[in-house]
């Protein structure tokens, strides 16, 4: 079954200015429509490391929804558990600056509750033989609870990826049961009700380490853009991983690729430090292109003792 990823599919509408971006003005530029969504990106990133993940999600009953499924199938994602229902996909509207950084965005989330019925009906089939679980931490709490129950039943690790921390923090008691949470420094600030925007990696590493120990949260990785990322767990292990020096074209999807790489490492035998390194490499490969996902890698390129198989 591989790694099981659960979450929403979005249509990303991305605007890029031709000249210097003016926040309060009209900016001439070009617009792109791309298959998106944190979980959709993560599952394709995992597939691009020639692993064979499974995706639980919802798409529209439309040609676009069918196109999403077909693309994932071409990347050898198991799409058996993707449902097609009216208005099954969300929309993410984003504008970027000339440096490729996100200048502003608005998202409209889809209704993901049909996933709950699917998990209740086929949960044993889905989770019994999977390698690990990636779950959007801001998904409906009823869904999180059921999936956590299955993870305990079959002793599977659960990794949380953040789409909207404002929603995710409302499930704080549930997130403490995840094996690892991945977020950026702004989201970490929301989670702990503090402002980390001016913290250095060293300072933030110490802060998050103390939070992990005090809050009995198993582990957390916080990405800090060009400053790299920090990681810590409840046992006191912690560290800083510098960012790769690359030319930035578009930062969209970099955090999702980071989560995919981290998950792959932690699932297949790497410790937290080495897994963060894998995530950093995949994130760097995304920001150098205009794609939302990483290019193809073989597992052994990332230090994984895994041979590619279609089994």
From TrEMBL:
PROSITE patterns: PFKB_KINASES_2
InterPro entries: Carboh/pur_kinase_PfkB_CS (IPR002173), PfkB_dom (IPR011611), Ribokinase-like (IPR029056)
Tagged with keyword Transferase: yes
GO terms assigned for molecular function: kinase activity
Keyword entries, A-Z: Kinase, Transferase
Coiled coil: none
Protein name according to UniProt: Carbohydrate kinase family protein
Organism this protein belongs to: Faecalibacillus faecis
């Amino acid at each position: 079954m591989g790694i099981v990823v659960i979450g929403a599919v979005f249509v990303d509408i991305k605007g890029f200015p031709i000249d210097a971006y003016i926040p309060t003005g009209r900016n001439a530029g070009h617009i792109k429509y791309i298959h998106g969504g944190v979980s959709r990106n993560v599952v394709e990133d995992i597939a691009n490391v020639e692993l064979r993940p499974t995706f639980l999600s919802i798409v529209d009953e439309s040609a676009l929804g069918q196109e999403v499924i077909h693309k994932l199938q071409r990347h050898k994602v198991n799409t058996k558990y993707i449902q097609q229902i009216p208005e099954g996909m969300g929309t993410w509207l984003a504008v970027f600056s000339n440096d490729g950084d996100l200048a502003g965005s608005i998202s409209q989330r889809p209704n993901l509750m049909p996933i709950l019925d699917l998990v209740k009906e086929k949960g044993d089939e889905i989770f019994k033989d999977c390698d690990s679980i990636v779950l959007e931490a801001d998904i409906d709490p009823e869904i999180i609870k059921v999936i956590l129950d299955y993870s305990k039943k079959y002793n599977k690790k659960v990794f949380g990826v953040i789409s909207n921390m404002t929603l995710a923090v409302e499930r704080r008691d549930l997130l403490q049961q995840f094996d690892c949470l991945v977020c950026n420094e702004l989201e970490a600030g929301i989670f702990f009700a503090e402002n980390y925007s001016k913290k250095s990696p060293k300072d933030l590493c110490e802060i998050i380490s103390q939070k992990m120990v005090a809050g009995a949260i198993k582990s957390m990785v916080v990405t800090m853009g060009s400053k790299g990322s920090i990681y810590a767990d409840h046992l006191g292990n912690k560290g800083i991983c510098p960012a790769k020096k690359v030319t930035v074209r578009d930062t969209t999807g970099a955090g999702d690729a980071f989560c995919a790489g981290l998950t792959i490492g932690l699932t297949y035998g790497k410790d937290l430090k080495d897994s963060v390194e894998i995530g950093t490499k995949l994130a760097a490969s995304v920001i150098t292109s205009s794609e939302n996902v990483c290019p193809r890698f073989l597992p052994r390129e990332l230090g994984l003792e895994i041979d590619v198989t279609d089994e």
